[in-house]
Design goal:
This is LSU ribosomal protein L21p. It comes from Sphingopyxis alaskensis (strain DSM 13593 / LMG 18877 / RB2256). Keywords: Membrane, Transmembrane, Transmembrane helix. The longest helix is centred in the N-terminal third of the chain and has 20 residues. The chain starts with a helix and ends in a 7-residue tail after the last helix. The protein is elongated. With about 190 residues, it is mainly alpha-helical. Helices cover about 35% and strands about 0% of the residues. It has a domain of about 80 residues. It is built from 8 helices and no strands.
Length: about 190
């Protein structure tokens, strides 16, 4: 007994360890719910016929990529017919050749706060490449485009993209930075 009085802490720790081990071995809760029935695979009709697996339909894709619509081509404008008698007989000089139409350089839409690489690529795929296009959007345009943004729906209104684009379209870098913070690059 003197050993127990001198080493009572060791004895108490040993007793706790023994109780925990006994509980773990015998007293753990066992599943009490009903046992799930296990279905046996169907047996083939002929002994050497392979079992055909059950075909499970695949889940449909969550988002379909939006393909850009082709831009409508305006119909050619017919020139009014002119009577031959009304035209004086002067030598005609051909007009100078018209300059070839140049594609407007696309703006970096990622300068808009809230537009990252994925949303920028999605907007470019919809034919939206300039700040001025976004600045000119009407409520009908916003509703039409927002429906095509998939996971980014609501970003136009939430991030004030039209207001941001109007600053950048008119080149008001100071106004943009005063309202929305510093630009990460040059427009």
């Amino acid at each position: 007994m003197t050993w127990l009085q001198e080493n009572w802490i060791i004895a108490l720790v040993g007793l706790v360890v023994a109780v925990v081990l006994l509980w773990w071995r015998f007293g753990r809760a066992r599943p009490t719910g009903p046992a799930l029935p296990t279905a046996e695979p169907p047996k083939p009709a002929k002994p050497l016929e392979p079992v055909k697996p059950e075909i499970v339909a695949a889940e449909a894709a969550r988002f379909k990529p939006i393909e850009p619509r082709p831009r409508p081509v305006p119909p050619p404008v017919a020139e009014p017919a002119v009577e031959a008698a009304a035209i004086p007989a002067e030598p005609t000089v051909p007009p100078p050749p018209a300059p070839a139409p140049t594609a407007a350089k696309a703006d970096n839409l990622q300068l808009l706060k809230g537009v990252g690489p994925k949303l920028g690529a999605l907007l470019n795929g919809l034919g939206i490449t300039r700040f001025q296009q976004i600045a000119d959007w009407t409520d009908a345009d916003v509703a039409r485009i927002d429906a095509q943004l998939g996971a980014f729906q609501g970003r136009i209104a939430r991030d004030n993209l039209i207001d941001q684009a109007s600053y950048l379209a008119r080149g008001d870098k100071a106004g943009f930075e005063a309202k929305y913070g510093a630009l990460s690059g040059e427009p």
